[in-house]
Structures are given as C-alpha cells and as structure tokens.
Amino acid sequence: DAGITQSPRHKVTETGTPVTLRCHQTENHRYMYWYRQDPGHGLRLIHYSYGVKDTDKGEVSDGYSVSRSKTEDFLLTLESATSSQTSVYFCAIMSGSSYNEQFFGPGTRLTVL
Amino acid sequence: AQRVTQPEKLLSVFKGAPVELKCNYSYSGSPELFWYVQYSRQRLQLLLRHISRESIKGFTADLNKGETSFHLKKPFAQEEDSAMYYCALSGNRSGGSNYKLTFGKGTLLTVNP
Asked: B45-74 pLDDT, tens per residue?
C-alpha cells in the first residue's frame, strides 16, 4: 500500500461546515495528489504538491484548498462544504521509480447533507 | 492537452470468454500509459504499465501509437476480474516535468458465472 493512509475514512457533515481530510505517507515521497471519484466522471485531480509548501491546482480545485507543511502530510480542506462535494476522496503519491506511476490511499467517503 | 477516452462505461462477459477494455488517448509527445484496477470499495491498484510490457493476472496491454490506443486484454475472464478499470496517461518526464496522471472515466467489468 506504499505506506499511504487517509483519515478519516468516513465522514458525514452538514452544508456550510469546514472539513479537513488528511493524507499521510511514510516513505518520504515528494509528489502527493488529491483526487475525487464520482460516478460517470472517473478520477479528477483536485490539487497536488511537489514538495513542502509547494502546491498547485488540478482540474477541479474550486472550493478546495491544500497545505503541506511536512513531507509526510498533505491536507485537503473544504472551507465551506456543499452537497456537490459529496464524493470519495483519494490521496496518491508518485513512486520514486523512473515511471510516473502513482499509488493510492484507501479513500475517504465524504457525505455532505 | 492530454486526454484519455474509455468508450465503454459497462462491459459484461461470461466466465472463460475473452475480454477487451478499450482505451484511446490524445497526447502530442511520448506518453506513459497505465491500467489501474479498483475492486469493490477498495483503493486503486496499479495493474500494469506499458513500458514494462508485463502481464499481470493474465492481462496484457499493447501501446499502439498509430491508433493512439492502449487496450487491455485477457483471453479467459474470471469472476474475480469483476472490477472497475481505469486507463491513465502521463507525459514523459524528460519532456519537461509532467508529473500528473490523466484518467479515463473507467469501465466497469462484470464477469458472469
């Protein structure tokens, strides 16, 4: 599992509340990613990080912010959750091999009521 | 811009039948292509990468640059192959740091007994 964990694994919250999801890795990988997975859309990149304090937007970044103050942790924050953000969120890391393959965390199922 | 198209949302076959999951891509340079598999409510797992030309769990995929395709094939499907399959593309690192994966929308394979 490439040493990737996510917390919480499940969360139910109400519209308008802030939510923070955590991705933790144990293998000192430089690149980390947040995706959301929705039926009919596959996986879509929200934000990614290429080092401590270095982050950039993906294709569906509106309504989300990220932070990376330590190599091992990449946080995804929904400042004010909306029902359209109900989804399964996956964190990923890029392996240190010569390939651009990514390895994924177990996912967080978020429901916004 | 890079794009991955998986034309079939759903694919249903019988056990023992051949299976082919289609993937077409659009990319101006030399891509790296991957297939990922996701079993029910689990994390995505890397199934294979084109550059290794490997066979995993009986699956193979050949990169056809002329047709810009990377179809996934297995000669005899098994019930345990039932899962969601994603094709993904990344640009070549040496071509100027492309460290992101673009995913297709996925094909749900069901293998019936």
From this structure: 999 888 777 778 889 998 898 999 999 999
Average confidence (pLDDT) over B26-48: 90
Contact A46, A60 (CB under 8 A): yes
pLDDT of residue B52: 74
In chain A, % of residues over pLDDT 70:
95
Range A60-67, long-range pairs (CB < 8 A, 24+ positions): A60/A36, A64/A34, A66/A34
CA–CA separation, B17 and B77 (whole Å): 6
Q: What is the mean pLDDT of chain A?
A: 93
Of B45, B93, B106, the CB nearest to A42: B106
Q: Quick check: B100 and A45 CB within 8 A?
A: yes
Say whether B43 and A104 touch across the interface (CB within 8 A). Answer: yes
Mean pLDDT calculated for residue range A86-108: 88
If one looks up domain B3-112 in CATH, what number appears? Answer: 2.60.40.10
Beta strands (DSSP E) in A1-113 are: 4-7, 10-13, 19-25, 32-38, 42-51, 54-57, 64-70, 73-78, 87-94, 102-104, 108-112
Domains in chain B: boundaries? 3-112
Contacts of A45 in chain B (CB under 8 A): 100-101
CATH 1.20.120.1730 assigned to domain A4-96? The reply is no
